[in-house]
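thought: fold this chain, then report.
action: predict
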Amino acid sequence: MTYRSPEVKPCEIQWLGTMPSHWSCRRLKHIASVALSSVDKKSHEQEEAVRLCNYVDVYYHERITSELDFMQATATPDEVRRFTLRSGDVLITKDSEAWDDIAVPAYVPADIEGVLCGYHLAQVRPLNGLVDGEYLSRAFAARGINDQFRIAANGITRFGIGKHWIDNSLFLLPPVDEQRAIAAFLDRETARVDALIEKKRRQIELLHEKRAALISHAVTKGLDPTAPMKDPGIDWLGRIPRSWRVLQFRRVIGALEQGWSPVAEDREAEAEEWAVLKISAVAQGCFRPSEHKALPPSLEPEMRYEVRPGDLLLTRSNTPEKVGDACYVRETRHRLLMSDLIYRIHLDQRTCLHPYACYWLISRPGRAAIEADARGTSGSMVKIAQRHIRAWPFLVPPVEEQSAIVRYLDREMSRLGVIAGKIETSIDRLREYRTALISAAVTGKLDVREAIA
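observation:
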C-alpha cells in the first residue's frame, strides 16, 4: 500500500487535484442507472404486500441484507419490478433534515426478493462491466465526491437532491479489477477500525455502568461502610443507614412549577435574545443550556420562568427511558426560559439539598419509581404528573451527609467524565481516519493493489 505520486493527470473534479493516469472521470449516468423511489409507507388493499428498505436502514447500515428488520408495506406491480433490491445496487439518501446527510450510501450484496427501495432514497444500479457496486458505494462516501451532493442539496428545514444532480455527478473510475481490489481493501481495513471503535464504545458503556453504580450506592448506602444499618421495610431498597429516613417526595417539596412553551424559532438564540429550553437540555444529571430555541422578538418573555443557578429541573414528557430526567443547574446563560415540558422543583433546603435530590432522581431506585409512573397513549412519548412526583419514595440522609455525598459524587463524576471524554476523542479520530482512508483509496491517492495481492 503506497501513496501515489508518478503517472497522474488532472481530475475533472477540480478540488480532488490529480488522479492516476489510467483512471477516468465519468458522470454517474454513464456508468449506472438512477431511479428515485416512489414507494411510500402507506398500505393499500389492492396492492401487493412487500417490505420496504427505508431511510434509516440505509443511514445506519453500510450493507443492506435480508437480516435487517424491514417494515411492511404495499406496492404496485410496476413498483415491485422497478425497485426490488438486486445484487450490486447502491442505495443513497436523497432527502434529509441535514444537508450533510445527503447521499449517504449503502450497498446491496445479494438479491433480496420482496424488499423494495423506499421513499426518500435513490436506487443506483451499476451498468454491467463498467463499475463495481461495492466500489461505487464507497465512492459515494468519499470526501470531495460526496461534497457534490451536499453542495447541490436544496432546502431550509429539509434538504433534498434531484435526479438531474445525481445523474450528472462525477466519479473517478479505475479499471474494474482495481475497483474490486479497492473495495476488498476497504472492507478489511474499515472492519479493523470498526472493531476498535466498538471496543471503545464498550469502554464508555462500562463507565456509564460504573457511574450509575456509584450514584445508586452513595444515595442508598452512604459513604461510611461502618455506619449502623436498618431495614426500611421496602424490599427494593435493602438495608439503609440508621440515621436516614424514607419519605414521600411531597414531604421535602416546597413548590413545583411548570414552564411555558411559546412557538419558538428553531435556531440558537443570539447573546441578548431570550430562548426556551428543549427537553434535551436536561440529560442524566447534566444541564445543557445550548439546547434551546430562540424566542421570537415579537413575543414578550414570561420572566418568572427564567432558569437560574441552583434550580432543580425535571422533564415531564419524553420517551419512557428519558422521561423524568433531572439536572441541577450550576450555571446558565441569561434569558433562558423553562418550557412547559419541564418542571422546576423547589425543595425545603433544611431537609433536602437540590444537588442531592438530583442524584437521587437519576439513581437506579429513583429511575425505577419514575418509569413506573410514566403514562401515555403513545409507545414513544409518555408523561409524568405532579401527583406522581409528590408520591415518589425518597431516601433522605441528614443534610450534612447529603452535602458530603454530593461532594464525593461531583468529584467522581468529573473524573469519569474526563476519562469518557478522552475515549470519545479517540473514537472521533478513528472515524476521521476511516473517512480519510476511504477517500484516499477511491480517489486514487492510495495505491492498494499491492496490499491486496
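thought: worth noting. The mean pLDDT is 91.
final: C-alpha cells above.
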